[in-house]
Amino acid sequence: MARGIFGKLASAAGLVTAAAVLGTGIGSAAHAAPLPHREESPAATTKATLPTTLQIAGTDSPEIVVQQADRPDLFQRMLSEVNWLSAAEPTTNKPGSDKLGPKYTITVIAKDKPTQQYDLYPLAAGGPRAYRPEKQPNGTASAGWFYGRLTMSESLRLTGAPLKPKPDVVTGGIGGGIGEEVDRKELDPVAIGNEIAGDMRNLFLINAAVLVVVLIGLGGVAFLVRRRI
Questions:
Q1: Please, what sign has the CA dihedral across residues 78, 73, 136, 60?
Q2: Which of 113, 116, 121, 164 could form a disulfide linkage to 108, CB 3.0–4.6 angstroms apart?
Q3: Apex CA 108: angle with CA 102 and CA 110, to 5°?
Q4: pLDDT tens-digit readout, 16-72
Q5: Other CB atoms within 10 A of residue 57 CB
Q6: What is d(CA 101, CA 96) in angstroms, rounded to the nearest whole number?
């Protein structure tokens, strides 16, 4: 009888232990697996914040709007004049007000939301200047003045700003500028070499002709002198 009682107690203890282990496992699994939630992909977030429109307000011109979808080349060209200003360190102090020239405020817009704003002075004395205001559409930034790209005036002119063309500005990076389109023949080393060779040949022929004329003249003088003697 005692052996039967001990057997029943052992079976009951085993059932209690198994139930406890099973309950612990289910609780851990429920705690480890959070509820699924939707999250926007990084690609979608980045695409939503890409600039799509540029608004240019000048002191001497009406507001100009450049859409990326309508004029992609001009949009990228104008955007390159200001997109580096957001994280750059100021490079100069504010010039005198009488040396700044006309101001063009450019606002960068992502879809319908303004994200950045800068003041451009393409005709400032000593070279183009750019100003980053402290108050930005999406917050605040450290205010600062910068030397702008030499291409600033030409880029603004192509958007419709009343500025004179600068064909002497050639393609380059910051400070290098982007100017009028250059004919490829002007940059072709073979064409340049042929042109130089042609000029040298013409110069040689001219020199040879002059030498022949001089020799004929000397021969005629010598003939006359000999006849008189």
A1: positive
A2: 116
A3: 165
A4: 444 443 344 444 444 444 444 444 444 443 455 799 999 999 988 889 999 999 999
A5: 15
A6: 10
